[in-house]
Amino acid sequence: DAKTTQPPSMDCAEGRAANLPCNHSTISGNEYVYWYRQIHSQGPQYIIHGLKNNETNEMASLIITEDRKSSTLILPHATLRDTAVYYCIVRHDYSGGSNYKLTFGKGTLLTVNP
Amino acid sequence: DTEVTQTPKHLVMGMTNKKSLKCEQHMGHRAMYWYKQKAKKPPELMFVYSYEKLSINESVPSRFSPECPNSSLLNLHLHALQPEDSALYLCASSQKPGLAGYEQYFGPGTRLTVT
């Protein structure tokens, strides 16, 4: 399974953009990059995913490098409620794509400060 | 309705007890998952059910026994657990197993303490 590397922690000022990096240098051509976050003692929450192109939704933007070996999650205007552990995950498919699993790495603890 | 519910929220059990965790979703999802999360660690996959059939078992000890009685319900039966099994147990579901682009929705988890 492709592994991901993230900084253990980051700080961000409230109202500023938070840019969370992730390295996934062993990613295969058909493997998706997913981002989840987990606020303390809650279940993980899906944020966004992508394959090759940059993606944007109401929560965040995902920038994937052309060689797909790294990506950046951007929260455009961080709020205190965005304080959480952010997980970058490479989705691994089994059985010709009929099954898949998410293997969570250690994640980045993002702390948004007032 | 984009909610995965889990009961109970908290459970304390002795090492000789038998208990069950329950997970329910009404989103029509056909894949369901159990994860285990120890304190300050990431979630670890335990089981995957695809169309009500067990498709992945991540070498989980037999004292954990999953069951998927129908497409909306997932149970985890617990028997003869050890104190080191104390953790947050998370359930998740996704729309169609294997197809790209379908994210997993997680429940809030059951906090299990084994005494």
Topology:
The complex is a heterodimer of chains A (114) and B (115).
Chain A: E1 9-13, E2 18-23, E3 33-38, E4 45-50, E5 55-56, E6 61-64, E7 70-75, E8 84-94, E9 99-102, E10 108-113
Parallel strand pairs in A: 1-10
Antiparallel strand pairs in A: 2-7, 3-4, 3-8, 5-6, 6-7, 8-9, 8-10
Chain B: E1 4-7, E2 10-13, E3 18-25, E4 31-37, E5 44-50, E6 53-57, E7 64-70, E8 73-79, E9 87-94, E10 105-106, E11 110-114
Parallel strand pairs in B: 2-11
Antiparallel strand pairs in B: 1-3, 3-8, 4-5, 4-9, 5-6, 7-8, 9-10, 9-11
Q: Helicity of chain A, in percent?
A: under 10%
Count of DSSP E strands of chain B? Answer: 11
Give the biggest beta sheet of chain A: 6 strands, mixed
Cα Rg of chain A: 14 Å
Overall pLDDT of chain A, averaged?
91
Morphology call of chain A: globular
Strand tally of chain A, please?
Answer: 10
> Judging from the principal axes of the Cα atoms, what is the shape of chain B?
globular
Helix content of chain B: under 10%
What does this 3D model show about the protein?
The complex is a heterodimer of chains A (114) and B (115). Chain A has 114 residues and is mainly beta. Chain A has no helices and 10 strands. In chain A, the strands form 2 sheets. In chain A, strands 1, 3, 4, 8, 9 and 10 form a 6-stranded mixed β-sheet that branches. Chain A has a 4-stranded antiparallel β-sheet with strand order 2-7-6-5, with no helix packed on it. The termini of chain A are far apart. The mean pLDDT of chain B is 92. Chain B has strands at residues 4-7, 10-13, 18-25, 31-37, 44-50, 53-57, 64-70, 73-79, 87-94, 105-106, 110-114. Chain B is 0% helix and 56% strand. Chain B contains no helices and 11 strands. Chain B is mainly β and 115 residues long. Chains A and B meet through strand 4, strand 8 and strand 9 of A and strand 5, strand 9 and strand 10 of B.
